Amino acid sequence: MERWTPDNSNQRALTSLRMQRMVNRWRHHPVQAMQIRVLQTAEGSGKPLYLGTVYDDRSPLSRGEQAHGETVAHSETVAWYQQMTNPTNPLTQFHLGMLYEEEQVPAAALHWYRQAAEQGYAEAQFRLGLLYSEGQGVEADASEAVRWYRLAANQGHAIAQFNLGVLYEEGRGVERNVLQALRWFMKASQQGDREAQYSVGMIYDRGQGGIAQDLKEAAYWYYQAAEQGHAVAQFNLASMYHNGNGVTKNMILAVRFYRMAAEQGDATAQFHMGVVFEGGLGVPQNFAEAVRWYLMAAKQGYRPAQQNVGVLFLRNVSGVPVDYDQAFYWTKQAAERGYVTAQVNMGIMCQHGHGTPRNLILSHMWYNLAAGAENASGVKGRDDLANVMTKDQIAIAQQMALEFKPIQDELPE
Asked: What is the mean pLDDT of residues 1-28?
């Protein structure tokens, strides 16, 4: 039975394809002043008059949980703002835009954000950039997004700096310029933005756009993001420690960062935790732990984990009794999704009746599929099996292979 061994030298590049750019992270990090005490100047007095407390629906104190029993319904809050606050104040305008956006009235949100943005309010400039980037309440316009992001970024708005870097890196709304992307990512990174820190790491890791590869610098920025809980940065840093790329090889640190990412649910990291426990790399060898981590990744649809856990259920290793049914189930999950190594193993299991009734036609079909991908074990299995099959059986198996369509679903790679 074949197992799959990771090529960690390529994993770090692959993980970049799984990165969530998070251009709308503001939605998860609302402005700090969730409790807004609105003041107006009493006519003729020159003194501020306390009018009340307004709560945004996203506040922990919203929806009837406000302190001292103060509750203002979200829809009523919009009207209250319009009636009781100064409509020329950029903070007021911004919060009106925010509330209209929450009410899903994007045109009104755009109007009020623009009023505040044109007075130089950075958070509103950022929001305008986001609306133009996503095409909410206005036709998507990446160049307008760049304009508003830049205004906010020049005021030190970290997420606007990051988003502007993304647009430069991808060449949207502006000519692609990785050096400029790095400049803006670095500004956001220095403010502690973990997504920007990860992005700086990726640029130095890959070496692109005229920027020389610098694995030591990449490791430094991955570490900054990893310590803040960025799962892909944790995985990439683990891979660097695993292979000694940019850092001194250290399997103890590799396992530490693999585990950090795995415990956040990262399927690739969970798979690698299985690999290190199976091989005793930086940890005592423990097949039961390997199965535990492989299964976590396998249940997320990660095909290499499905393949490897299937093999372990066949090997009769310490702590993992032979279980043909489990082996067949997980191997088939990967094979049906086009995973070539699993298709070879399905050929073996169908040929010998492990976890399934013996079936030479199905065995030949699976070997044939692997052979079509130029897998040497698939070619040998198919050709050897053909020596004990009839021509009719071979023809049926070949037809089944031609008609095979791998399952296409959204699975992590």
From this structure: 47
Token output for 99: 């509330």
- Beta bridge pairs of residue 52: 38
Q: What is the pLDDT of residues 178-214, one digit of tens each?
A: 999 999 999 999 999 999 999 999 999 999 889 999 9
How big is the CA angle at 72 (ends 66 and 77), to the nearest 5 degrees? 135
- Please state, in angstroms and as integers, the Cα–Cα distance from residue 252 to each residue in 86, 280, 395, following that order: 59, 11, 53
Domain contains 187: no
Which amino acid is located at 300 in the chain? Q
Q: What is the mean pLDDT of the chain?
A: 84
Q: How far is CA 2 from CA 298, 331, 347, 399, in A?
A: 17, 11, 11, 25
Is the pLDDT higher at 56 or at 402?
402
> Which of 127, 155, 183 is where one domain is finished?
155
Round to whole Å and give the CA distance between 204 and 5. 26
pLDDT digits (tens, 9 = 90+) for 353-378: 999 999 999 999 999 999 999 999 99
Domain range spanning residue 367?
308-413
The token pair at 245 is 């790329």
DSSP three-state, residue 54: strand
Number of domains in the chain: 2
Within a domain: 127: yes
Its pTM surpasses 0.85: no
Q: Tell me, what CATH number does 401's domain have?
A: 1.25.40.10
For residue 142, is it within any domain? yes
Alpha carbon distance 150, 174 (integer Å): 12
* Contacts of the segment 287-293: beta carbons below 8 A, 24+ positions apart: 287/312, 287/317, 287/318, 287/319, 287/320, 288/318, 288/319, 288/320, 290/320, 291/319, 291/320, 293/262
